[in-house]
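To whoever picks this up:

The parser on our side crashed when reading a file containing two proteins. I've narrowed it down to the boundary between the first structure block and the second sequence. Both blocks are reproduced below exactly, byte for byte. First block:
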Amino acid sequence: MRIPRILCAVAATAVLASCSAAPVSDNAPTSEVPGYLAVADEAVTSGGTLDLQMTVDNGAATGLDPQLADVATSWQLMSLVYETLVTVGPDFSIEPGLAESWDNPSPTEYVFHLRKGVTFSNGRAMTADDVVGSFERLLAGQGVWKTQIGPVEKVSKVDDRTVSVTLSSPYQPFLASLANVPAAVLPIKEIEDGSVDITREMLGTGPFVVKSHRQDVSWQFTRRDGYWAQGKPSADTVNIAIAGQEQARMAALQNGSADLVMLGNVDAPELLNGVRGTAVGTQATTDFYYLMLNSNAPGGKFDDPRVRQAINIAMDRRAIADSALGGLGKPTGVTPAGLPGSCDPAQVPSAKAGLDRARQLLREAGVENLTFELAAYSTAPAPAVAQVIQQNLQRIGITVNIEQLDEGSWSGKVYGEVPATFDAALSWFAGYADAAMVGKWWNPEQAGFNVGFMEPNAELNTAIDKAIATPAGPERDTALQQLCDAVDTDAQMIPLVTRPALIGYRSDALSPTLYATEGYGNVLRGIADFRLLTK
C-alpha cells in the first residue's frame, strides 16, 4: 500500500509543526464557473466510450437495492441508473431533479410536482405511484437512510404528477436528504409484480443502463434511449474497472488506458505533475474522518468520559490535515466544514483546552500508561491519519498500537459484535448536504450501526433534535454550534478533519463536469455531461 507524505507522517514529534500543504501542481484543472472544479465543453461532439477506474465494488456487500446502499462507492455507481426527486447544486442549494418544482405550504408539508416525460429504462412512464411507493418502501425497510429522511408521517398521491408529503414535526434537512441515491424513485409496479428483482438488477430513470457486471472486477453501462434530459448522456458507453491498487490506477492514467481514476494518495498532484495530457483535481468534500472510542468494550478503557475528553483535547486537527492529508483537509466539527451554517471547530470545548488539561483529566480518572489498539483500514490516506493520531496521544502519555486492515476485515472487527470488542477505530462519514444531517449518526438508537460501541447520551440527543428542527437563520447557527459542543464533550465518536477526493483524468481525452465541493461522495455526479475528446 502507499502511505502519502510518508516523510511527514512517520517523522518524530517534529511532524506536528513542520509539514506544510502539498504544492499546487501545474496540471491542476481550473474552471471560471463558480462552484466547479471543471465544466465539460459542450462544443465537443458527443459519443464514445468512457473508461474509469474505482477502488472497490460494494455490490456483494449491499446488493443492488439503492435503498440499502450505505457507502459512497455504491452511490456513485447507482447514480448512473437511479435518480432522485431533487438534487444539490455546487453551492448545496436544492435543485430540481425528477420533481421540476415543489411547494412548502407549511414547515411540515411538501408538495412535489413531477417532471413530464420521465420514463424508466423499460419504457414505462414514471408516475406519482412510483414516488409514493418508493417512500413507503424506504420507510418500511431496513436501510439506514430512512433515518435521514426524517419524521415522514404521510405520503399521498394528489394526481399522476403530484405527490404530497407530511412530516410529523419540522425537519430542516428534509429536501437535502432526498438528494441522495437511497431516496431514489424506484419502479414500484415492477418490484411489486415481481418482474424485477431490484436486489439483483437495476431499473431506473437515469441516463445509463447496466450491460454487464462482474463483482469486484468491472461494470459496463450503456447510454439509454428515451432519457428525459435532451441530448444526454454524452458518452455511449461507460466502462468501470475495479482497481484496488493505487499504483495500478495511476499507471492506467499515465498510459491512457483510463480516462478518469479515483486516487487516494494526497501526493498524486505532485507525482503526476508534468505528465503530459493528465490533470489531477482536488475536490473538497463534506466527508470527514472520525475516531471511534468503544465505550462498551470489556475492560472499560473509554467508559469514563474524562478519558475520552482527554483524547479529544490531544487531537491536533491541523497537524492531521497538514501531515496526513498534505494540507488538503480541514479541521471540522460534527457539522462538516464547508457546509452553510457549520460550526467553527476552533470554538468547541476541546479546542479551548490544552494538553495540561488533558493530562489532568487522565489523573482524575485514575488512568496511567493507557495503551489501546487503533483499527484503521489500509486504504490511503487512512494509515497516515492513524499515525498522526498516534503521535498526538504520545504527548499525553497514551500509547496507540495501529492495526491496519483491509476494509472487509475492518468492518467485521468494528461492526461484527454487539457489544463490540475493539478498543478504537478510525473511519470516515460522508458529510451530506445539510449541516445537521450527519449528526443524526451520533444517536445510536437511531443510527443502529454503532449500538455495539456507543452509549446513548440524552443531552446529546436533545442537541441533535434541536439542530434538525430549527429553521435556517441565527437560531439554527446557535443550535448547530450547540450540537458541535455536545458531540465534542461526549467524545465517543470524535470528528477530526475533512477528507478530500483526488480525481485524476486525461485532459487530452476527457472534458468532465466536477463540483469543487461534493457532499455525497459522488465524483460521478456530472457524468451525463462528460465529453470525450478523442474517442
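<<boundary where parser fails>>
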Amino acid sequence: MTHPAKLAATAALILLAGCRVGPKYTTPATPAPPAFKESAPAAYANTPDGTWQPAAPQDAMLKGKWWEVFHEPELNALEDGLNIDNQNIAQYFQNFMAARAQVREARAAYYPTVSVAPSYQRTRTPGTLRNSVSTTSGTSTGTGTGGTGSTGTTTSTTATSGSTATVMSLPFDVSWEPDLWGKVRNTVREYQYATQVSAAELENERLTEQASLAEFYFELRGQDALQDVLNKTIEADKKSLELTRALVETGIDSPEAVAEAEVTLRNAEETGIGVATNRAIYEHAIATLIGKPASSFSLPVRMLTADAPPIPLGLPSQLLQRRPDIAAAERTMAQANALIGVEKAAYYPTLSLTGSGGNESSTISKLFSAPAFFWSLGSTASETIFDAGLRRATVAQYTATYNADVAAYKQTVLTAFQQTEDYIATVRILSQQIAKQQEAVAAAQRYLNIAQARYETGLDPYLDVITAQNTLLSDQQTLVTLHVSEMTAAVQLVQALGGGWDTTQLPAAGAVNTPGAAAQVSNTP
C-alpha cells in the first residue's frame, strides 16, 4: 500500500471511530409553577400572630445537616450516628460502589485484550514399533534360451528405538474490536448514568432514614409530654379524691362522690400506663435506625418543648435539583437513552482484529532467539443480514422503556410538587389549630378552677368537677397531639423539599471511577 493510501485508510478509521449511533439525550421539559400556592400570603390571612410562618427564600437555604434547624442537640447526635451505623444506608452505599465498578468493567472494552499461555511439553515415542521396507530389484528382458525377463522384490523389517522431544512455547494473543459505532461508548455512558442513579438512590434512602429518625424522636418526646400531662392529672385527681373523702366525713358530700372521684383517678392511671407502650415502640425504632440493639438502647424522659421552626421553601423549580428521587428518575432516563444507542449499534458491521506471536523452541537456550519467533495477524468483519426483525424489536423495546422512564420522571416531579404543597398546608393549618387549642386549654383550666371552687363551697355536685377535669385532660392531650403532628409535618416538609441535598453532589459522569468519587456522595459510611 502506498503512503497516501495508508493515510487515507488511517483517516477513515479515525472517522469511523468517531461515529456514535443512537438518539441524543435531552432532559424533558417539566413546567414548574412560579411559587408554592400554599405559601402565598393569602393563605396566612387568618393565621394568629406568633404562629408558624415559612421563611422567605432569601432568608436561608436548607443545609446538609437540615435537622439542626430544630435546635435539638439530642436529635443532632442521633442523626450523626445514623449516618454512620444505619444498615439500610450501608446497603445502598455498597450498591453505589458496585455501580462504580461496572463503569470500570465497561471501559475495559475500549482496549485490546492480551493473553499469554506459556507451555512446556516433553514427549517420548515407544521403542516397540517396527518398520517394514520393501525393495524392488532390477528387471531384465531377452529372447534367448533362458526365457523371459524377471523382477525381484525384497522386504526387510527394522526395529525403531524410542525418541524424546521437548517443546517450549511462549505465545501471546491479542484481540480487539474497535468501537466503530459507539457501542462501547454508549455502554460506558449507560453505566455512568446507572452509577448516578445509584448515588441519587443512596441519598434518597439517607434522607428517608434521617426523616424517619426525626419523626420518631418527636413522637417519642410527644409521648413524654403526654405522660407529663397524665401524671399531673393523676396528682390532681388524687387530691380531689382526698378532698371528697374529707367532705363525706364532714357530711357535706355523699359516698357516691367518692366513688366518682375514684373512678376518675383509676381511668387516668390506666391511660398513663398505656402511654409507656407507644414510647417503648418509638425508642426501639430509633435504636434500629442508628444501628444499635433495642435491648441496649434507651433515651431519658424529656418533654417536647421545641416549636416547629420556619422552613426555607425556595422556588418550586428548585425541587428539580433538590430532591434525590427526581435526580434518580432523570438519570434513569439518560441511562435508558444510552441503552438505545447500544442496541442500534447492532445494525452496523463489527470488526475484530486479532494477532498472535511468541517464541517456540525445544531448548531453553534458543527459546528467545530470533529463529524461535513466530507471528500471525488477521481481521474479521461480520454483519447480520437476516435476523427476522430481532434488532428492530430490541430497539423498539428499549425505546418504549425510555418513554416509560420519561413518564415516571414527570410523575415523580408532579408528586414532589403535591407533597410539598401538602406539607406546607399541613404545617400552616396545624399552627392555626395549635393557637386555638391553647386558648381551649386555658378556658378548660378556668372552667375546672370554677367547678372546684363551687364544689368545695357546696354549691355544685362533684359531677361538675369530673366533667371539667375530663374536658381539661382531653384538651391538653389534643394540644400535645397537635404539637407532635406539627413537628413531624415540618420534618416531612423538609423531606419533600429534598433536605439539604442538590444535584451538584452527584458524582460526575466522567469521574465516577476515580478514587475520590466516593467523597462526592456526602456522609458515606
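After patching the parser it read the second block fine. Strands lie at 113-116, 119-125, 130-139, 151-159, 163-176, 350-361, 373-382. The CA atoms of residues 226 and 477 lie 6 Å apart.
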